[in-house]
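Why predict the complex rather than its parts? Because the way molecules touch one another can change local conformation, and only a joint prediction can capture that. The input here totals 1082 residues.
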Amino acid sequence: MASTSLLLEIVRNMSKNIIENKELLTELDRAIGDSDHGINMAKGFSAVHEKLGEMEGKDWGYILKTIAMTLISTVGGASGPLYGTAFLRAAKVVEGKGKIDRKDVINMFHEAIEGIKMRGKSDQGDKTMLDALIPAFETLKSAYEEGEDSKIAFKRAEESALKGVEYTKTIIARKGRASYLGERSIGHQDPGATSSYILIKSINQVLEKN
Amino acid sequence: MASTSLLLEIVRNMSKNIIENKELLTELDRAIGDSDHGINMAKGFSAVHEKLGEMEGKDWGYILKTIAMTLISTVGGASGPLYGTAFLRAAKVVEGKGKIDRKDVINMFHEAIEGIKMRGKSDQGDKTMLDALIPAFETLKSAYEEGEDSKIAFKRAEESALKGVEYTKTIIARKGRASYLGERSIGHQDPGATSSYILIKSINQVLEKN
Amino acid sequence: MKKIINDRDRVVEEMLQGMVKAHPEFIKRLEGSNVVVRKDAPVKGKVALISGGGSGHEPSHGGFVGLGMLDGAVAGEVFTSPTPEEVYKGIKAVDGGKGVLLIIKNYTGDVMNFEMAAEMAELEGIKVEKVIVNDDVAVEDSTYTVGRRGIAGTILVHKIAGAAAERGLDLLEVKRVAEKAIENVRSMGMSLTPCIVPAAGKPSFEIGEDEMEIGLGIHGEPGTHKEKIKTAREITTILLDRIIRDKRFVNEEVAVLVNGLGGTPLMELYIVNREAHKILEDNGIKVYKTLVGNYMTSLEMAGVSISLLKLDEELKGLLDDRANTPAFKQI
Amino acid sequence: MKKIINDRDRVVEEMLQGMVKAHPEFIKRLEGSNVVVRKDAPVKGKVALISGGGSGHEPSHGGFVGLGMLDGAVAGEVFTSPTPEEVYKGIKAVDGGKGVLLIIKNYTGDVMNFEMAAEMAELEGIKVEKVIVNDDVAVEDSTYTVGRRGIAGTILVHKIAGAAAERGLDLLEVKRVAEKAIENVRSMGMSLTPCIVPAAGKPSFEIGEDEMEIGLGIHGEPGTHKEKIKTAREITTILLDRIIRDKRFVNEEVAVLVNGLGGTPLMELYIVNREAHKILEDNGIKVYKTLVGNYMTSLEMAGVSISLLKLDEELKGLLDDRANTPAFKQI
Ligand SMILES: Nc1ncnc2c1ncn2[C@@H]1O[C@H](COP(=O)(O)OP(=O)(O)O)[C@@H](O)[C@H]1O
Ligand SMILES: Nc1ncnc2c1ncn2[C@@H]1O[C@H](COP(=O)(O)OP(=O)(O)O)[C@@H](O)[C@H]1O
Ligand SMILES: [Mg+2]
Ligand SMILES: [Mg+2]
Ligand SMILES: [Mg+2]
Ligand SMILES: [Mg+2]
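Output of the joint prediction:
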């Protein structure tokens, strides 16, 4: 059972890692997008970071909804509504909950992905954040099914996310700005997949410490 | 006594030399002006070159006036009206003449310089074409006064013109675009003085061959 | 990065302040937002038009706010779609009771954020319709792609829809003519240099001294491919060929927009216009109206796009209507 | 040299063709010349205004030909004054019987060529007057110098004199208000990059990645000195300080022109405008009107100039008059 203080630690770590990787994400977006993914994400997660105090002591649903609304109302671009929708859909699953279990984790993750698919009219293989998130989710799910604990499950999920990021280098973008490049998008890793990987890694880092 | 066929040979040589030095003159103007002196002069003297046929068999005044009008109506910029006025004033001295003598040469040269001074409201030491022309003229005059022939007189005039060009490197421009640079114009040779030197050298080259 | 700015993270805020100071007779800033609206907004009894998107495309879109064009423009960060909240504020501020039309350029971010804003406004009982401009033929439009981008042709859609709204047409009618304009407009661009997003501080792509980028958009993104630099004639031919291949303009009357990307001097745009007129004439396409200038830019990028809008009598009339905005005036 | 051109020796000819194709409702080309005149030239019974100079300053000057501004614009080669013959053709074509005013920017070449043209026209019985614009405070004005240059402030002189002519004032009256405008206008510019004269093919000066050139003109000539790049605020302060030191603007009402040199995006011009308004306010100078945009450019040079025009009631009225030209419209 995971508490909201764990969640807040994760959110703090997500903010830290996103802000630290601002340059990297922007640089990746420079190659196949419009040089702003790191700027967008750092802006959003700085705003999230500022709300950490206000989230203290609130339930899982409230915290995730606050993150969602903060991202939606500060980021803009494509990643703002996409990540915002993901967190919003995850929030619905755990409304009012003080602690959550593995089933909640699976449901949240599932809903988040469905939210992105819906909002982005996109799916795995389009060279987007989904190419990190979907494999990570599937790995997580089977690890849980195999009875692994969250530490191991998220460790494996992180590895799959990273593989997903690597995979984005090999495919043509079909969604987002990178899709305008056609063949030229091959060879470059997707910035959004990379930020998704960073978010999952952020979860993992906190779990490992606890 | 100089014939008009000599004059036409000189004009042909002037055109050739100016066109050959287009890049050099433009490059000099790039440093302290607006990168067009070579372009302007080459345009003017190409037009003059095209009129050589039409000038054949005409008198000194007609030929010089044709050059003047051609320069005025094709060059533009500062050098167009200045060189145009110079040739126009020289033309007046030798109107209707088939052959000219040394006195005519002195008068023409004098009038040309006066024309430039009047049109340009400028004088020696302003870092302009006058800094090549005036010393050249003075040397020519004293050489004639010393009884030297035209070959020697123009040889010396060319040397003085070159010294004048060198001198322009040491002074601040007070006329033309270079004057806007103030102190920064020091160290650069004046493009117009350089084109004047080329014109005098063109006369000299022809005299030496004849 | 050579830019005349103060703080690379505050360029949009400071630009908007400077824009409003420059054009107080046309526009005002909506307090606490990056939205500029007509000085007389909301105009009662008139359908209102909102456009916007990332900044860096000036004079788009704030420069087209005024009589006969937009009622409001929502500015995001440089090349980043504004948030739903910002767009929502714009919608609320301009609604004069006859509803609001959103003119959206076809980018994932813009579409998502504007649509979320529309949902928010509709919850408050404001009638909102949207059209999505997708004029850029450099991008393939198929079921496997996100479709063509919206680029400079958007200006012509603003003009047409703005005139219709000013004439007093109702929301669905304004939407209809906007969609007709979108259906009839195609664009294609190229560039000689990248641009630098201030907050990123680096050129948006690398390009050789003798190369040009063909088929790029307006966000500093690379184009579909690089080529050796060609003459204005060849470049214009490349752009128009693609446009004419995409849609039938032959024997039609058109409006031509030769749009500078920000760093290209007007001299070169006029030279491209000369070539464009020649090529159109050779193809039996009659030019009814020409616009040449920086309408939809990409910061300091050097480059040009050409747009063609096929005209019928209705569109001609709307195009000829009066307009009075900072960057588009027609008497 | 990255330019969208065909032939570096034919840019002016091709640009003029493209310009006339773009604006047939405003201007026409005088056959066999590089002169564009109002479509309805000569306007009978109106004093006519001619301006011009080297090309490369677009939209200057052809873009300001039309109602309420110029009657004709004479284009020389890039940065090279047109010949007397060309100017003379322009004068003849626009004279509507009430005489012609030449608006000359203070450069040796322009002054000499325009004066020679005036002499030619006077021989034919045309009344010609001239005014010489010298707004650039970067250049010292003393008996030992050729005096200040004419730069972007010229646009304001066109507007004022053009309005006076359109009102039907006679030649000497139009000249008087033009001279009043000249007396009251001051400008100062800076740049971040050089430009490339097409026929020369090389940058007009060398400059470091972290340097800017202060006090330069509009012909790609270097300025008075180089400095490290500063913020928009500091740059605007440098420019306005020089202007305000040169002439007393304190407690006066002014028109401000924030002019882009061609390669600087509107975003940056608006940021400069923001700073300018702040500084003027701090100095007790009241802004009556603001213009921001590319009015007097220097090919693709990145940079900006600021002009201030001190206004009295007469100048305000003339500034507010209607104008309808390709690049300056006021309804
Ligand atoms: N339709 C979509 N579905 C899922 N993810 C998307 C979609 N469009 C874009 N993305 C993701 O968003 C990332 C770009 O985000 P960002 O640069 O912040 O926004 P923008 O593209 O508007 O500049 C891409 O790398 C991609 O992973
Ligand atoms: N007032 C003047 N008197 C004499 N010569 C001048 C004057 N102004 C400029 N010049 C000469 O003209 C030259 C520049 O000519 P050019 O570059 O063709 O014209 P512009 O200065 O109009 O671009 C200068 O180098 C100088 O020698
Ligand atoms: Mg991006
Ligand atoms: Mg020159
Ligand atoms: Mg973006
Ligand atoms: Mg010149």
